[in-house]
Amino acid sequence: MTVYYPYTHLFYGPSHTVAISGPHIQVINTTTGDVLHSTALFADEARSAVLKSGPIRCAAVDKNLEYLVTTGEDKILKLWEVDGLKLLSERELPKKPTGLAFSADAQSILASDKFGDIFRYPFVHVPSTVTQKKDALSSHENPSGGQLILGHASPLNAFLLTHDERYIITADRDEHIRVSWYPQGYNIEMYCPGHSKFVSAIHVPKFDQNKLISGGGDPDLKVWDWMTGEIKHAIDVAEAIDPFLVVRAVKRRRGGYDDDEEDEAAEGNGSKRRKGKGRAKGKDRQEEEKESEEGPTASSSQPITENAEKVLVIQKIGSFEADGVPTIIFSAVGATALFTFPYRDGVTASDIRHFDFGRPITNFTIADDGLVWALLDSEWTPDGVPSGSGIPFVKVLKFSLGQLVEAPSGSHSALLLTLNGTSLVEASVDDIKKLSLYIDLKSMPKYADKPEEAEETTEAPLDKKLSNRELGRMKRKQIVLEKAGGVGVGEGEEEEEPLGKKSKSEL
Amino acid sequence: MAKRKRTQATSSQIENFLLPQKKHYRQRAHANPFSDHSLDYPSSPGVIHWASHYPAFHDTGKIPEFADIGCGFGGLLIALAPLFPDVLMLGMEIRVQVSQYVEDRIAALRVTASESSAGIDAIPHDYQNVSVVRANAMKFLPNYFSKHSLSSLFFLFPDPHFKSRKHKARIISPTLLAEYAFVLRPGGIVYTITDVKDLHEWMKVHLTAFPLFEPVDEETLRKEGKGPIIDAVYTSTEEGKKVQRNGGDKWLACFRRVQVSRNS
């Protein structure tokens, strides 16, 4: 049984196409299907440098497909010349990158990161001769001298430049979609508020450039007028996706983010506060902090049982015109189908069409000729052992009579044959696991809700001191409520806690 | 620590009893702003039911104009409330116990004021124009305030996060300033004060460097009639009083929101 890396990115061009799988980049002649360049065929030193960076997480090309930027696991931004697959420069990024993009003129490279920032780097890299000195006033590490465009206080999941490049739109794990001037990103034009879960994909359709389509953990895709922040339309997609969501998320214990956690853990170890808190041993410090803030929780005294659950994470949103009909196409992490709906007013969930591949989709690309290239994780099996089944890793679809169908053989066939044959790169079972293709299912959602519910019911009996405290508060509060008079206790309480849940343990 | 007399509290015993006691709301002084707290926050300013925060203003359509970021025990809000009776003010505090304290404090003040406001307080006031939310302002400020809706933004004695590796957790940073500029209307004022010299330098440097803020000195603001605000900034908060008692220095720095044009 031979196991291969599934593809994660495909950049399609009329003359050549760039395919990325695992740590490797390949340039393929689009017409003939000949592999022109491949990092898998590099000589020793160059090859080990490629492997050292690990699986490629983020990649982008300029619009002429002359240049490619990639990042792996090592926070190194690599700029490649596609012709010859020459490595032009390497830059160290300050934080783990989450997305890359070229400006239209290819003169700027933008990188978003888990810290929530966007840095801009010039095409030509002039390595700094002096190491960046960190003084008491420097707020951002910036090892490669990038220009800080903007920053959120939570990890950035997606960003894009509008077509005129006057605005940059960014989306984060805390539900925010922000529209900022570009490059003067400090000037926030508007927020698009309304998501109640993380936003993981955004798209501005070419045929309606004033609108933004966003999706994430919420059951619907939202259509915005991004200049005004007004929501124009929402279409429920969760039900359409659900039957195809085959990859389950194993619940994370905590919803924090790794960069931060590393810091916290490093500092938390051996700190005084840790002592005398034997109970908290072996937990990461965020959890400990939470305890001290919100009182002991039921979950802190017993291990959380790992259970797999369905999690919705919109992976990518795209658009194209099929037979003159503006169409939206999207995918979800760990789902086996691609979904489309016509882009028009009044569209509902019943207008969603799907094409099922039977294997989770890792990415898709819409070629200029309207064909949709779907990249599949054909090694996936429910128990996580790569299948080695030899079923196709790439399929080509076309839009016909209102839905996606498999494209009959044609000019794309040579490339497709190569992608499903000679350009596949062998991998070990371990390599496949390290790809963590479905990490977003775990890292995107927050899991902070349950402990608080537990707090409300268990707080008092667990700790006598606390309950004294509660009593002390209650005595006064009750009199205050009575004094509030004719209002009635229930109503009075509502006045004090207008935003709902919070902690109502006092009552 | 012994309980201190609050200047806002009256001598009335009943009122003193009604006011919440800090000993019932103890919590460590720091919170990690980057962790996922069990917060409940509005998805957008538009969905907030401000009338439930400010029942006496329910038919005015008013929204908060002053925001005290990290309001702590609420000293500034309580001091400013009688001075600007028509201005709605909101405190934001990330620590659940402390925000609960402020909430209970305001509730108690509202009740006592309606009973015995005549002649006991120096300025009779019902504290209907102040409220508090438990919130992580670093992450969710735009969930509470719409574009240009605030006229004053307060950062009083913020957590200094002394270690340089912790500087990213400071409430003033080049990237967060964009959000403050977004919610603050042009001409609006950011007030900062701290007893930590390094933090003062930090805030001053970053706010001054930020294109949408320009420094404005105390004298100018006093001439504009903002003297009472500045006095409250210096002295009304628990932290401010503590510094005073210990004879420490306080550094004030204020900035005005300005507009810039696009680079072409």
From TrEMBL, chain A:
> SMART domains, alphabetically?
WD40 (SM00320)
Intracellular or extracellular location(s): Nucleus
Q: Name one GO biological process term.
A: tRNA (guanine-N7)-methylation
Entry-linked Gene3D superfamilies:
YVTN repeat-like/Quinoprotein amine dehydrogenase
The ranges of region (Disordered) come to 256-305, 448-469, 485-507
Spans of biased composition, class Basic and acidic residues?
A: 498-507
The protein, known as: Uncharacterized protein
- Species source reads Laccaria amethystina LaAM-08-1
TrEMBL record, chain B:
Q: Which UniProt keywords apply?
A: Methyltransferase, Nucleus, RNA-binding, S-adenosyl-L-methionine, Transferase, tRNA processing, tRNA-binding
Annotated catalytic residues: D159
What is the official name of this protein in its record? tRNA (guanine-N(7)-)-methyltransferase
Which sites bind S-adenosyl-L-methionine? Answer: G70, E93, I94, N136, A137, L156, T237, E238, E239
Which reaction equation describes what this protein catalyses? guanosine(46) in tRNA + S-adenosyl-L-methionine = N(7)-methylguanosine(46) in tRNA + S-adenosyl-L-homocysteine
Task: Give the organism, scientific name.
Answer: Laccaria amethystina LaAM-08-1
Q: Which NCBIfam families match?
A: tRNA (guanosine(46)-N7)-methyltransferase TrmB
Compartments annotated for it: namely:
Nucleus
Organism classification, top ranks? Eukaryota, Fungi, Dikarya, Basidiomycota, Agaricomycotina
Q: Which PROSITE patterns match?
A: SAM_MT_TRMB
Its EC number is 2.1.1.33
